Amino acid sequence: MDFNHKEVEKKWRDYWFEHETNHVPNDISKPKFYVLDMFPYPSGAGLHVGHPLGYIASDIIARHKRMQGYNVLHPMGFDAFGLPAEQYAIQTGVHPEVSTQNNMARYREQLNLIGLNYDWSREVITCDPQYYKWTQWIFLKLFSHYYNTTENKAKPIEELIQHFKKAGTEACYAFSDSDIAFTSQEWKNKSAKEKDETLMNYRLAYRKQGFVNWCEALGTVLANDEIKDGVSERGGHPVEKKAMMQWALRITSYADRLLSDLDQLAWSDSMKNMQRNWIGKSSGAQMFFDIEGSEKKLEIFTTRPDTIFGVSFMVIAPEHEFVKELTTPEQKILVAEYVEYTSSRSDLDRISEKKSITGCFTGSYCIHPFNGNKIPIWISEYVLIDYGTGAIMAVPGHDTRDRDFAKKFNLSITQVVQQDEESEIESKSGVIINSDFLNGLPVHEAIEKSIHEIKTKSIGFRKNQFRLRDANFSRQRYWGEPFPVYYDQEGTCHPMKEDQMPLILPHLEKITVGTEGKSPLVHAKEWANPSSGTTRELDTMPGYAGSSWYFLRYMNPDNHLELASKESLHYWQDVDLYIGGTEHAVGHLMYARFWHKFLYDLGITTTVEPFKKLVNQGMIQGIIENIILIKDSSPSTFISASLANDYPEDKIAHIPLFTGSVKNYNTADSHLDKEGIHYFINSKPDFVNSIFKSESGEYTINNMPEGFTIKTKSEVGKMSKRYHNVVNPDDVINEYGADVFRMYEMFLGPLEDSKPWDTKGITGVSGFIKKYYRMFFGENQTIIADESSPTKEELKILHTCIKKVNSDIENLSFNTSVSSFMICVNELRRLNCKSKEVLSILNRLLAPFAPFITEEINEKLGNKESVHHQAYPTHSEEYLISDEVTYPVSINGKKRHEWTVSKSKPQSELESEVLQLTEIQKWLEGVTIKKIIVVQGRMINIVLT
RNA sequence: ACCGAAAUGGCGGAAUGGUAGACGCGCUGGACUCAAAAUCCAGUAUGGUUAAACAUGUGAGGGUUCGAGUCCCUCUUUCGGUACCA
């Protein structure tokens, strides 16, 4: 009789729940291990088989560590604020609170089916006021701190205010983008509003002008995601950049620490590189160029001040504040047109298109600081307003983008670095020419000298520039954390008192878009104006607010007095292993590191980094089956994939099909039969009169012969509703059981690789679990394992497996450990092993992978204690020792023979005896042996001339 | 365009610079069965052969090495990210 997974899984799920076997105490007597999953956004679609991949891996680690004696924190929660719930509410009227609760309930149910050992009593939900109270609290701490550049840490803004009172900006070491200067008297003379505005230059949470994607037709701000090809995805309306006052976080003040502390992390080099490149530290000079006929100066940053004599034009971003005044009357129309064109383009469009170079002359000129030449000022979209100062000096001789631009607009190109023919124009090898006082210097020396001169002439200074920007922290949305601040009549910002928090998001009966770019909170009239003359902030915080510190709340989730108690923060400290998708490689991970460091400066967290080790699981993709449609055909004509080569690429379109309706899907012979074509037409009634064409002829559904088939095209891609290829874990578990599902997910391939899901392959793992069960139980569930003492061979098989599985878990190589379990079971069955001793060790070894069946077997074997609380097996080398070894014998690196000899045979004997083997001799006739390479215990290679 | 990753049989994949294709799916043949399912046994990279020998083979092209799927260079394709999807 086979394993009844439905019954057994329910039994143990209930048992574990009742006995709280997953409960994790803050038990400081045991060593801690914190393994964390990136918590999901609870989407309406529920989990598909791709989501749990990382959760299962972390679950195996967590169970393994627990069996090794650690106190393991392995929690789960929800990143529950977000745009989709709000969009859903606007479209359907279902309030985000309701849809989010429903979605979370469904996620919990699905996660529990998989047998993940989460301690749900520690659940963290970002939209829970008891949680976001502390998100708001951290925000206010950011608001009330500045970054001190000598102490290199965040300090209370009150200290800075005292400094301003005493000395103004004299000897003030506060991080800021602006270089405003004032005396103590000037500070004292400032009005409250002016003081507030000044302090905004230093606060770690501050307000500034930011740009949003404004869609007039929809009356709302759009996420980048909601824009396709420059127009709104919904409705195809025009989108433009609009400036608005926005909250921002001064992450740039932490740029150096975020960069240097990467070195201490056990993250993959590729991940660290992505973070390094995202921070993008570059050193150079900040310079001010005089503008002809203006008091103002154009501020630019360059990494190549050595090429200052190669400047032939300046370029400013279309959003640059000087655009208006630099534009001369003659250029006015052209500039206006150009600015309008660029405002409809995304940053991605602007930097990604190499072919079309666009720009427009302002009509104004800068003055070269050293030779007094006139330098035309141009506007182009390849300069981004958010990066650097939004303006550059263009050196077309030594920058490819500047060169392309110069060629297009016939601007002069001056070579100022002597280079050999082959070197790239941007290369820093060579000496400076055509450059007055820099002539003859190698580039690196010229950079130093030019900065020195720039400083001496007071036209600039040395500067480290970061690509990292202070990202926008405001969203014109309802479903997010409200800002715990209010504004007085002057518009000055005041933080709320701690005892008034959380500032609860007001309930709106109906979510509708706001007016004039405001969030839907504009409709919460009473809430928005708490007392006469005061108004609340109507924007809410972005998704990354709640996710930047949630890992700390798990340590002590019920604390009403602090974000987490000192004791819990001291005990759990940081995350030992963090598993999640690469899509969070920079965004989430950078902000979480930033907040963690800030909290460290405040003395709250005990480590400088939140995530010691990071692993990115790959995406599980779906199989997409498409039918091929000839574009613009009338009536619509579908062709067999085998005929597709007769048509040019741009004449055909791929229409995704429900995978289940395709015969032999994911093979070269995938096709729709007549039944499948019926199904397709039923789901897409527009195509009811379409023609289906294959080698055997062309038909409509009405005259189609019975055996007609049309080939479909298989590809691998996202698992999504759109492609009708979503596989739900519930269905798989229902049919095969959670243990099989877990092991199959792991068996698919390396955790970090992306790979397609195909449920067909699961029968291999399912067969394994059945075989495994039958090793313990005969007919009628009777135990067949006996007290026989294990044989040497059985022990060798078992311990080989123990060794492999332990090292695989350490390396997160779960696909190979599943293989070794299969090999072990196959071999033990071949030996007809019944030894209870061997089998119960194997059962413990398998427990983290297959928690249900192992728990059931453990009980049937007469154990009282849960298998998951027993010790994890370790191997003994003594069972693995063999006195023979099989050498592959190669001739010139190509294997020709296998040779089994005593392990102790010395190298000299191996070398002489190998040549006597008949299988080898035939290769040696008439040739000279150059040398013999012997790697003891591994291989032999005979090198011939 | 930029940053990062990947590419191995029909499919998912295995392989400290040392026997390419473990393990599993699929397929083929066989056993059991009235039959099917389930289960079990055998085979399965390609070419070649009754079988073997042998030759070829890890996206493409070069290189380093006694020996390269693995290291280096160039390229192609696919995937993730590019700051308001999460």
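qc> The domain at 283-466 of chain A is CATH 3.90.740.10 (Isoleucyl-tRNA Synthetase; domain 2).
qc> done
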